[in-house]
Amino acid sequence: MAWPRLSQRGPLLSRFSHHHVVVFLLTFFSYSLLHASRKTFSNVKVSISKQWTPSAENTSYELPEEIWSSNYLFPSAEEATLFLGTLDTIFLFSYAVGLFISGIVGDRLNLRWVLSFGMCSSAVVVFVFGTLTEWLRLYSTALYCCLWIANGLLQSTGWPCVVAVMGNWFGKAGRGVIFGLWSACASVGNILGACLASSVLQYGYEYAFLVTAAVQFAGGIIIFFGLLVSPEEIGLPGIEVEANPEEDSHRPLMSGADSEDEYEPNYSIQEGSTHQAAQAKAISFQQACCLPGVIPYSLAYACLKLVNYSFFFWLPFYLSNNFGWKEAEADKLSIWYDVGGIIGGTLQGFISDVLQKRSPVLALSLLLAIGSLVGYSHSPNDKSINVLLMTITGFFIGGPSNMISSAISADLGRQELVQGSSEALATVTGIVDGTGSIGAAVGQYLVSLIQDHLGWMWVFYFFILMPPGSRCYHNANRTSLVDPTSMSGSPASPDPCPTRER
């Protein structure tokens, strides 16, 4: 029965030290700051579009007409909007490529160094893109594209590193609710970015980029001096060597075996070793792709992230464009989508811990996501109703997205086949999130095209097709493989990558 096992998780809390709390908070806010800088761009799209077109009303600057006319990039707001969508696509494609690379790099270098470098260098690029170019009146589509490609590559260092660090500190028992709560870092970053942007937008959109870049740079410095990558760094046992004879009742949660008598630890490093992280070898990219569940969940996440990031990039613009609401007000209202994602990720993670399975929770949430999208697409021009439907949509879209990108990625990277090789975690996370970002990248360009030619309703029709596609890949995983995200059930299937060192 699942309940007796669940009731024995209480001792796990006693093993959480203040180091676990510090790691939780530092990784949480480091990725929140990365997401805040991305959110700034989506929140100021209307202002940027006006600045780039000659028909805009110059409300922020007192410039002569000839100077104002020579600054514009596009002859119409529609073309400016299409270019903004192109920038989103460029960012996500470079971000996706960077994720595949960053996961491999993160498993071979110090995760703290990689994360700190990514945060600080990305902050510099964001400052140049949004602030310096405006101060110097330097408008160039080629420059914007190059800077945003660099920003995508640099920001890709964040997610594989923070998930790997969290996976090093927190075991599978209780991971659903812990990672569900922790994965709210992206939504909190969206909220933080929206608040920072709306608070200084009246002075010009360049100050929104300036504030978020400065805060992100400071966060990168703190990460460099304050983050502990793994318990072994301070002499604590790793999560793979925490078990002892008195804790046999917890082992089925981590092994996936039905019977406690059949369970045998599969550690490649002796218990008590304080150098496990240094001795373990990172698996290759091909071997990580061969692990059960990695490809199906990656493809499912591609469909889901397409919708989630479309809301992330376009929701403030949609509220302002479709309902005529002020840009700063639309920024604040869009926060409620992220609130729904926070609640959804945490609650669904808790339920998956209770059931000791992730798959049923994901399947039900994706089914209900279709109804929530239909409901939101018919939202009236009423802020209260719109906020309610927006929150529900965030619950069923953002919740599963958070689970796949955090808890399930950690489950896949630490499943039975790779125990003893913690350096698989960042690579697997990079594959899952990288594939998701490719789907999101394609989606952002399609959103701008569909909206420009057919209108917003057809955009929502496009979104409604994505959750069923995600469920198809998810069901393929359930029928073809032993579910590696299940904390109970049959033993793991044979190693699909026999060439990997065991």
UniProtKB/TrEMBL annotation:
<feature type="transmembrane region" description="Helical">
    <location>
        <begin position="113"/>
        <end position="132"/>
    </location>
</feature>
<keyword id="KW-0472">Membrane</keyword>
<feature type="region of interest" description="Disordered">
    <location>
        <begin position="245"/>
        <end position="265"/>
    </location>
</feature>
<feature type="domain" description="Major facilitator superfamily (MFS) profile">
    <location>
        <begin position="23"/>
        <end position="502"/>
    </location>
</feature>
<keyword id="KW-1133">Transmembrane helix</keyword>
<feature type="compositionally biased region" description="Pro residues">
    <location>
        <begin position="493"/>
        <end position="502"/>
    </location>
</feature>
<feature type="transmembrane region" description="Helical">
    <location>
        <begin position="361"/>
        <end position="379"/>
    </location>
</feature>
<feature type="transmembrane region" description="Helical">
    <location>
        <begin position="177"/>
        <end position="201"/>
    </location>
</feature>
<dbReference type="InterPro" id="IPR011701">
    <property type="entry name" value="MFS"/>
</dbReference>
<dbReference type="Pfam" id="PF07690">
    <property type="entry name" value="MFS_1"/>
</dbReference>
<feature type="transmembrane region" description="Helical">
    <location>
        <begin position="385"/>
        <end position="404"/>
    </location>
</feature>
<protein>
    <recommendedName>
        <fullName>Sugar phosphate exchanger 3</fullName>
    </recommendedName>
</protein>
<comment type="similarity">
    <text>Belongs to the major facilitator superfamily. Organophosphate:Pi antiporter (OPA) (TC 2.A.1.4) family.</text>
</comment>
<feature type="transmembrane region" description="Helical">
    <location>
        <begin position="453"/>
        <end position="470"/>
    </location>
</feature>
<feature type="transmembrane region" description="Helical">
    <location>
        <begin position="207"/>
        <end position="229"/>
    </location>
</feature>
<dbReference type="InterPro" id="IPR000849">
    <property type="entry name" value="Sugar_P_transporter"/>
</dbReference>
<feature type="transmembrane region" description="Helical">
    <location>
        <begin position="80"/>
        <end position="101"/>
    </location>
</feature>
<keyword id="KW-0762">Sugar transport</keyword>
<feature type="transmembrane region" description="Helical">
    <location>
        <begin position="335"/>
        <end position="354"/>
    </location>
</feature>
<feature type="region of interest" description="Disordered">
    <location>
        <begin position="483"/>
        <end position="502"/>
    </location>
</feature>
<keyword id="KW-0812">Transmembrane</keyword>
<dbReference type="InterPro" id="IPR036259">
    <property type="entry name" value="MFS_trans_sf"/>
</dbReference>
<feature type="transmembrane region" description="Helical">
    <location>
        <begin position="294"/>
        <end position="315"/>
    </location>
</feature>
<keyword id="KW-0813">Transport</keyword>
<feature type="transmembrane region" description="Helical">
    <location>
        <begin position="12"/>
        <end position="34"/>
    </location>
</feature>
<dbReference type="InterPro" id="IPR020846">
    <property type="entry name" value="MFS_dom"/>
</dbReference>
